[in-house]
Structures are given as structure tokens and as C-alpha cells.
Amino acid sequence: MTNPPTKDFFASPALSLSLAGIFRDAGATAAAPTASASMEVEEGDEGSGGGGGSGSKKDDTVEISSENSGPARSRSEDDLLDHDDDENDADKSKKKKRKKYHRHTADQIREMEALFKESPHPDEKQRQQLSKQLGLAPRQVKFWFQNRRTQIKAIQERHENSLLKQELDKLRDENKAMRETINKACCLNCGMATTAKDGSITAEEQQLRIENAKLKAEVEKLRTVIGKYPPGASTTGSCSSGNDQENRSSLDFYTGIFGLEKSRIMEIVNQAMEELQKMATAGEPLWVRSVETGREILNYDEYVKELSVESSSNGRPKRSIEASRETGVVFLDLPRLVQSFMDANQWKEMFPCIISKAATVDVICHGEAPNKNGAVQLMFAELQMLTPLVPTREVYFVRYCKQLSAEQWAIVDVSIDKVEENIDASLVKCRKRPSGCIIQDTTNGHCKVIWVEHLECQKNTVHTLYRTIVRSGLAFGARHWMATLQHQCERLVFFMATNVPTKDSTGVATLAGRKSILKLAQRMTWSFCHSIGASSYHTWNKVSTKTGEDIRVSSRKNLNDPGEPHGVIVCAVSSVWLPVSPTLLFDFLRDESRRSEWDIMSNGGPVQSIANLAKGKDRGNAVTIQAMKSKENSMWVLQDSCTNAFESMVVFAHVDVTGIQSVITGCDSSNMAILPSGFSILPDGLESRPLVISSRHEKSNDTEGGSLLTVAFQILTNSSPTAKLTMESVESVNTIVSCTLRNIKTSLQCEDG
Q1: Could you tell me the CATH superfamily of domain 500-686+703-748?
Q2: Rounded mean pLDDT of 642-660?
Q3: Contact, 595 vs 626, CB < 8 A?
Q4: CATH homologous superfamily for the domain 259-307+319-495
Q5: How many alpha carbons fall within 13 Å on the CB side of residue 556?
Q6: What's this model's pTM, rounded to 2 decimal places?
């Protein structure tokens, strides 16, 4: 009969021999074979160890497993021998009987271990074959495998328990710290306690902390790939202020991994700076303005000739060249503008619709504090469009900041071949040729910016809807960057303004209330941009619908982000082309008086304006609070409308009435969970196609002026983060998207578009 193995039995291998005590009776002639977790006892065939006992008496033989093999005897064995000696002292005339221990040989253990790795559960045939091969009884082989399986299981459980205990201790510490912070926090405007983690931490800072945690994980993965830092090593050195130790670390990082000396990197960025200045200031024949579109086009032959650039592709796959230049004036002081480019988080915050990820991988040169003159840093960015239909672009580049004169700065980005190849050659699908901007300080806090964007991208498949706007260079070109920069700077000026006209801030009585509402709307729009792109943060699945729309669905679980509802969130997105101008479409979607025409949640009821806050010179840049009244209840909606020279957005979310009323009075909005939905509107890019004067001129009005509309809705399907996604919830959000698209097409009379 075999005794079942126990986990506690493996706590100490030395305890395994203690079972020998159950066979102390020296007169036992036929001890029953017994198996424990690491030992078996069987009748032996050899004579007693005393040098010749009676033939009728047989010694017990103990087989020791590989875990207990070795020349030294355990304490249990010594106790057993001492017990036998005492019995022999009482009756010296009687032939003493000792148990003889036989250990598995190293060869036997090796063979059994080899089979165990291939098959932890050998069948009867395998055990028979192995027993013959090793000269062991089949049951010895059977017991050894049982013991081995049990021991490994015990080791695994102890390891898992240890990890769980560490995680539990960590969560307890975090919970304690959060409770202490909550108890101390209060709103500076109303004096009431808040549920935010820190009363002084803004919603934007909380969102940045969440993003930082994700970026740190990616940076650690990057460092692991290139072999400089092991997993778990600190990744904060590149983000802190400079000192000798950090400078040495950064230099070692580059010379040791990329094979590039710091002097070589500085030579490359200085050459890139010179090229950027030429690209930014030169006119014809380097840049030729298109008569049809008014855009500047790079004369590539002149570029290669004038700047002595090698035109060979160096064996790379066939790539397309995208070059564009745009000039504009932004309302922001020069030091602050420069700082926003050199800090990865501020840079991502400045361009939320273009940048889905950004990180400073390491700092090569910290520059002169505090203005960062001469700073050089390796950066990573994932560039997106606000649709899952266009793949993101991942680009590694070195950014160099330099003061050209007392009133002029330049920031240049350039990809370095050897850097990219050593990071991960499979990811290098987009490279930056010398790109960036020249910033000229003018007057009254304004800056003139000349933006040059010069990319070399590997050709890939793009959805037919976006093929024109992507391949023409508009999607990621200088015009897009400049328009976004101007819009964000204008938004910041209106946010900081203290002398706001009454007509630009209706429905909100205090300046504190205005700022709280604008901050909440900004966080809502950031979340929307982060949720609908093709970033690796999301996994999009195409679902089939009865009406034939191309809808992509993704889901995520929010565990601890205070800015969103906790639980399972489903996002459904669909992009379509409509034969209406972007301006007309934007005005229709943001107009509260026409909301009932497309919003199925309004049930056709009237919409009342509660507040309207301007955040830009264009009347379309505004934050509004709308009340949709029905027979059952009144539902409030926060809406953020944004428009610039390139794209427009209408982002909205249903909000708790009591919560939004407290925000209107000036209370902190960072503790309000909000789940945005909305629309992104882009020009279709058809105006960038070359026009032929003869026949195409007559048809030009028919092919221009269309819009690319992306509709996105997010819903909370379950408040428990551990719940599973159901098909019913997916069908529900798909229905919302389909009905909204159908209502928009009907209202704009473009059902067949």
C-alpha cells in the first residue's frame, strides 16, 4: 500500500529519512514496502551487514532518492543506528540486525531525470523499460517519479506564495499611503474633502503619471533588448537632472552599445542643424510653391545637389520621402515653447492628436541649465492618426536644442542609422531626416515658427479611405504639426487669461470655475485621442454589422485610473468618407440645437445650454455644458469642440449633474471619472492630387471638399474589472455607432456617400 505524498514532507530533505523509524523492529522479516515523498523501503536480497546472519532473516533495504543522495548520513539515520546499538547492548548474544541503505547511483539519477524532463508521467511500458535499463524494480522507478513530481509542485507553490506575499505587502503599503493622503486632502475653493489622491495634484498630472508608468515599462523593455540594463534596473537616470555620474552613464550607454563616440553624435547633430537652417530659410529652386494647392513642394534633385546628400537607400527596402514646410505665429513665450519640446511629457501633451507615445530614452548631453542650450537626447515617439485604420509610425531620433542668437532658437530631430539598428531593426519603419523648427522671438509673447518635416518611410498598406492624405504627406506633415501647435498655444492663453469677457464665459460665475471646467474638458479630449488610434496600447478587432459598416472594437480594463470609470470599457470606432466639407460637418456636429438629429441618447428631446466657455479666437473652439431633458430625467453632457487649419474634433461625455455643478463652482475636477466619445474630422486630401488644366479643371469641384469622419463611442459594460466582455455589450456599442452614422448621413442628405 502506498502512502500519499505530502507537501510538508519536502520542507527539509533531511526529514525524509525519519520514516525509517517506522521499521525499527529488528525482528521484522517481511516489512511492507512503503513509499514516501523521497524514500521507499523494500525487502533486500543481501545478507545482514554483520557478516553473515541467518538465511531466513533478510535485511531491509532503503532506497534514497536523488534529492537526498550524498555521502553524509542524516540525523534520522544516526538516530536509527543509535537505537539499534541500544538493543544490541541489552542482548549482546543476539546477532544485531541493521538496515542497509542503498542510494541511487549518479547514472540512475541522470537517466531518470532525463526521462522526467520529457515525460513527468511515464506509462507502465516506459517504467518497465527504464527499470531494466537501470537495474531497479519497476516500483522503485514509479515511486521516484511520484516523489519528484510532488517535490517540484511543492517548490512551485512555495515560490508562488512568496510572490503573492510580496505583492500583498506592497498593496497594503500603497493602500495605507493613499488613505493617509485622502484624509489630508481638501479642495482649496470649497474647503470640502476630496476623493482625489492628492488635492494639489491636477488631473493632467495624474494622467501623466499613468502614462509615465506605461512608458517606463516600455523603456525597460528597450533597455533589456539592447542588453545594457537588466530587467528591473532603474530607468530614472535619464529623466533626472544632470551630474557627472549620469553623464558617464549616458556616454557609456552610447559608446558601449551603439559603437558611437559622443564626438561622432555631436558631429551628426551639428550637420543636421545646418541642414535644418538651410531647409527652413531657402526659397526657390529648393522649395517650389504649387499653383493648385498653395503648398510648398521640395525639389528633391536640388536638395541632393545643394546639400550634398547621398540619395542611395543603403540597401533598405523601398521607401517614400515626405517633405513639407510651414510658417506660422504662435502665442507663447520662447522659453516655455523650447521647454515643451525638450520634455517628452510636455511634448506629448502639446500634440495629443499626433503623438500616442513619447519617451526620452537617454540623455547624451544635458545642456546649459535652465534653458537647455546644447542639450542632446535620444527620444522615441509613436505617431498616430485619430483612427485605427492607419498604422502608427514608430521613430527613434536624436533631438538637439541650440540657441542661434539672443532671439532665435532651433530644435532639430534626426535619426541615426546605427542607433536604430542596435535598438531593434524590425521596428525601424520610419526615419527622420533633419527635421524640426526655427523659433524666432517677436513681441508680446509671440513667436514665429518655421517648421520643417522631412521623413523617410517604408511603404506599407494603407486603408483606401486614408491613402491619399497619408501618401501626400499631409497626415504627418508640417501643416498638421503647425496647426496643432497654434491651437494648443491659443488654448493655453485662454486658460490662463484673467480678464475674460462675459460673452466668452457664460454660465460660469467665477474664474476658478472656468479653469476647472476647461481642465476637465482638456483631460476628456486627451483621453479621447488616446483611445481611438492604432497605438499598440489597443487591440482592434473588425466586427461584422447588419448594415455593412466597417466597425473596429477594442476593450480594456480600468483598475486604478481615477480619470475613468473602473471596470470593463468597450470602444467602437468607424471611419467613413462623406461628400461634405469639413467645416460644414464640424458646425453640424457641435451645434447643440441640432444634436437631437444624430444623438440617439437624446431621444429627440430638446437640448438646453448650461454653460459656454470660449477657448480660442474661432467660435468653434469652445467648451459647453448641455442639458438633455426627457420625461424621466435630465442628462448633462460636457462637450469640447476643437478646430484648426488641419483637423477638427467634437468630444463629449455624459457627466454626473451633482459632480459637474461642483466643478462649475471651482472645485477640483481631477476626481471626476469621465468616459469620452466623439468625432474626428479631416479633409480627404483630394486637393493634393495634381490637376490637369483641360478636362480635370471642370471636374475639380466634384472631387474636392470631402471629409473623413471618424465616429467613436465608449461604454462601461461592467463596473467589475474582473468581468468578461460579452457579445451583448459589443453589439450595443456597435448599434450606437451604426445609428449615429445613419442619422448624420440622413441629416446632411448624403446617404449614398
Answers
A1: START domain (3.30.530.20)
A2: 92
A3: yes
A4: START domain (3.30.530.20)
A5: 19
A6: 0.65
